[in-house]
């Protein structure tokens, strides 16, 4: 019989600045307003692809868990061994799974550390190393804006013809630095600028998402849906008026309704009850405002083996990042978007040994590759969309990453 590998979780006993603990290289993060999980070191990792990637991810995770002997004096979500995951938008691209060697968590007044192996508890260095700043030169294409507006126009024509109701189109930009780009610096800047977002880093994909795709905790499931966006001006009185106009916008309300309905429909088979508010609220971020709805549900007790992987398989891709109907929107994205999204707009976050977890949609993010980074933005297109306004919205959604890299 093979020897089981010790996994130990114990209280830290102090309020730790999670992002300050991260190393320069390959940090793992899921942090919001100072709470969440960070990790470093790699105990095991794998990549998966294909239409069964959520099932394959579960099977790999369960196989790894079979080899652990867990001692957990803390208990609760996110304690014990944890899998960090970053799934691709398309089944054709690679998803990445990582089990960190060390994980530190914080929730409320509780902090804990988990480590794999028989070594003593790792020391936590809370003296934050200096941040590494880069100068970024962005690639530019003369006709990039015009080409993207042309794709939006094509999408609007398809929608108006009745082929589909909504599609989300994305665009990307690549920047180059004078040295390797360090994700920890980006995370710290994003956390300071956008404290209400989830700051994530997995295998070089780093960002600050405002959209929680799935929180599963003790049979309760939550999904925050964002769709419908307007830029902020920085003038409080003007922004309040803009928020009111967003809440009344028929175009944005239509876009939002499709996204909410897709999430509610995905959760309904697993839940004895779901709560879908009648109308959205306006979520204020530093640079934009979104229409937002929090959909919640209680998992049916009679359903065995429903975990985060099960629900992700049904939730992704939601109308917030793909469109409605899903199949027709996906086909149109493949036809006209002219790029691979990679792990942009895919689920990103963590899953614990109980199958609970928190995963957002990888938005407001960039994929680091040494001294280069590729950043993304996407917009929901409906019949009432205007290509110039969608272009402006995409530029606003690029601001967080451009600012964090400045």
Task: Please give a structural write-up.
The protein is α+β, with helices and mostly antiparallel strands and 406 residues long. The chain has a single domain, classed as Anthranilate synthase (4-Layer Sandwich). Helix content is 27%, strand content 36%. It has helices spanning 53-65, 144-160, 183-193, 236-248, 250-267, 308-315, 326-336, 387-405, and strands at residues 5-11, 28-32, 35-48, 68-72, 82-86, 95-107, 110-116, 137-138, 166-176, 198-202, 205-209, 212-217, 220-231, 271-275, 281-284, 288-299, 323-324, 347-352, 357-361, 365-369, 372-381. It has a 21-stranded mixed beta sheet that branches. α1 packs antiparallel against α6, α2 (144-160) packs across α8 (387-405) and α3 (183-193) packs across α8. It is globular. The N and C termini lie far apart (54 Å). The model has no long low-confidence stretch (mean pLDDT 93).
Brief rundown of the structure:
This protein has 406 residues and is α+β, with helices and mostly antiparallel strands. It has helices at residues 53-65, 144-160, 183-193, 236-248, 250-267, 308-315, 326-336, 387-405, and strands at 5-11, 28-32, 35-48, 68-72, 82-86, 95-107, 110-116, 137-138, 166-176, 198-202, 205-209, 212-217, 220-231, 271-275, 281-284, 288-299, 323-324, 347-352, 357-361, 365-369, 372-381. It has 8 helices and 21 strands.
Key phrases:
21-stranded mixed sheet; 406 residues; Anthranilate synthase; single chain; 8 helices; 27% helix; 21 strands; globular; alpha+beta
């Amino acid at each position: 019989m093979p020897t089981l590998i010790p996994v130990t979780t114990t209280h830290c006993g102090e309020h730790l600045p999670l992002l300050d603990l991260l190393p320069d290289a390959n940090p793992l993060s899921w942090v919001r307003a100072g709470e969440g999980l960070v990790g470093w070191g790699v105990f095991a990792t794998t990549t998966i692809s294909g239409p069964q990637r959520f099932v394959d991810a579960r099977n790999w995770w369960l196989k790894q868990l079979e080899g652990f002997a867990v001692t957990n004096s803390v208990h609760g979500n996110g304690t014990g061994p944890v899998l960090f995951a970053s799934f691709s938008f398309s089944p054709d691209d690679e998803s990445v799974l990582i089990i960190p060697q060390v994980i530190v968590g914080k929730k409320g007044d509780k902090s804990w550390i988990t480590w794999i192996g028989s070594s003593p508890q790792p020391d936590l260095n809370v003296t934050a190393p200096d941040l590494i700043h880069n100068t970024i030169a962005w690639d530019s294409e003369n006709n990039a804006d015009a080409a993207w507006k042309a794709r939006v126009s094509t999408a609007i024509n398809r929608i108006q013809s009745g082929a589909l109701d909504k599609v989300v189109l994305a665009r990307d930009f690549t920047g180059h630095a004078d040295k390797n780009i360090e994700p920890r610096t980006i995370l710290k800047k994003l956390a300071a600028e956008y404290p209400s977002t989830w700051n994530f880093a997995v295998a070089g994909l780093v960002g600050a998402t405002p959209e929680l795709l799935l929180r599963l905790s003790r049979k309760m499931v939550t999904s925050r849906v964002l769709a419908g966006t307007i830029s902020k001006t920085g003038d409080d009185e003007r922004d309040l008026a803009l928020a009111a106009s967003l809440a009344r916008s028929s175009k944005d309300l239509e876009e939002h309704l499709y996204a909410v309905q897709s999430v509610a429909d995905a959760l309904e088979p697993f839940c004895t009850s779901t709560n879908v508010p009648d109308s959205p609220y306006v979520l204020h971020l530093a640079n934009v405002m979104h229409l937002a709805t929090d959909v919640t549900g209680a998992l049916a007790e009679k359903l065995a083996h429903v975990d985060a992987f099960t629900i992700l398989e049904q939730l992704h891709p939601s109308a917030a990042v793909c469109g409605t109907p899903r199949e027709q929107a996906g086909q149109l994205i493949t036809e006209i978007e002219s790029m691979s999204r990679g792990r942009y707009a895919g689920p990103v976050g963590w899953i614990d040994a109980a199958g609970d977890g928190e995963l957002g949609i990888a938005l407001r993010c960039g994929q680091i590759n040494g001294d280069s980074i590729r950043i993304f933005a996407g917009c929901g297109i409906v019949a009432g969309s205007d290509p110039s306004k969608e272009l402006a919205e995409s530029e606003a959604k690029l601001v967080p990453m451009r600012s964090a890299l400045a």
